[in-house]
Amino acid sequence: MRLDPAIAALLADPAPVAGASSAASGLAPRLAKELARFGGGEGLDHLPTLAETFSATEAAASLTTALLRSTPTTLSAAPLAYWSWRHFSNGVLHSAVIAASGRASLSLVLIDGAAWSAARDSAAPEWIAFQPGELHAAILAGSGAARIMRNDSADPARAVLVSRPLRLENGARYRLDGEREALVLDAVDGPLLTLRLHRRAERGAIARQYDAADGRMVHQAAGDAGASRAELAMALLRAMGRADAAPLFARRAREGSSAARWQALRECLALDSAVGFAALAETARRVGDPLAGPARALVDTLAARDPAFDHARETLLCPA
Amino acid sequence: MKLPKIDISSLPDLDVLTGVFGSLKHFDPGLASSNDLIVVLMVYLYETMPLR
Fold first, then answer.
1. pLDDT tier, A15 (very low <50, low <70, confident <90, very high otherwise)
2. Chain A: nearest CA to B46, how far in angstroms?
3. Out of A86, A222, A238, closest to residue B21 by CB
């Protein structure tokens, strides 16, 4: 195995790896404190410093300049340094999370206009994605044109979309209630740099996508990563035959979105049929629960399939 | 209570399926969120190391 001398030197003295991390963590204490409160669910109108960053013209720019000042120097001095800002690039959008706390994150996002135009498929249908969460954005540099699409429908299966044009230019600001509002880009001229404050949705949120042409729903997905992570973890534990996890699955069947709860019930039934069937019967009995109907139907299907389930149904659903 | 084993593929889904987090279609790459469009699952494998 070949070990590069620069890497080998780090084994003897790892200090340069940590160098950038300490230089880059630079949010002012007051701002960091307000970000933590925002991440905990507090409204922006109660957080003056954070709110000013997304209302005053100069505040967002000066915050960004201050944060970025030391980064290039630190990274060029120690190119192998661990950079504490989580970063991402898909060739069109490049971003770095400057600070995060609880459900909130503050990030810098650069959209490369040329790459965006090249990647754009003008023949694709216009599907608008509504992703639960709250977003506050301030344009720092560049220009473009966009629309804010608002869904005024009460029916999740069909959207009623209202469009409002938005000029993206230095100093422009916008906020989105992700469950109801979505940004659609129409033009990006050159690099477009935005400072974004985002708060993820709480547990149980669902993201939905609609066809702009007729408002029909084309896709829905879990709106919080935690629900999907739990779903994958349950599939893994079930495949491993970890029957000791069944009570945990049963508990998951009581909280979160209907989709996540139903998946927990399926996994629980497959992992430990007795614990799963008890959880299923409990759901079937619950008044006003949207899953009571499907749960009742599944109890009946299983009871018809095997006399053991039929007997269990008598015990669980009709306790004498 | 002893009940027979159930194969998960024999259990029905709900009428409207819900995809995994981030599974949106034809999504504008310029609008991709910077965070969490991926679900990370970490599996720990434990192994007992002999002491020397």
1. confident
2. 14
3. A222
Residue A77 has pLDDT above 90, yes or no: no
Measured between alpha carbons, how far apart are the two ends of chain A, in Å? 71
Give the whole-angstrom CA distance, residue A157 versus residue A161.
Answer: 13
Tokens of A34: 């307000």
Are residues A190 and A212 in contact, defined by beta-carbon separation less than 8 angstroms? no
User: What does the pLDDT look like over A95-151, one tens digit per residue?
Assistant: 989 899 999 999 999 999 999 999 988 888 899 999 999 999 999 999 999 999 999
Q: Which one, of A227, A304, A237, A221, lies nearest residue A275 by Cα?
A: A237
B44 in contact with A, Cβ within 8 Å: no
Q: Give the homologous superfamily in CATH for domain A13-222.
A: Jelly Rolls (2.60.120.10)
Domains of chain A, by residue range, sit at 13-222, 225-317
Residues 4-33 of B with CB under 8 A from A: 4-8, 11-14, 16-33
What digits encode the pLDDT tens for the residues A153-201?
999 999 999 999 999 999 999 999 999 999 999 999 999 999 999 999 8
Sheet hosting strand A206-211, strand order edge to edge: A127-130, A206-211, A217-222
For residue A144, what are the CA distances in angstroms to A65, A117, A170, A188? 22, 12, 10, 4
- The ipTM value here is 0.72
**Residue A141: count of CB within 10 angstroms of its CB:** 14
Residues 6+ apart with CB under 8 A from A282: A316
Please answer yes or no on whether B13 and A262 come within 8 Å at the CB atom.
yes
pTM, two decimals, is: 0.82
Interface size between A and B, measured as CB pairs under 8 A: 150
A2, HSE (Cβ side, Cα atoms, 13 Å): 1
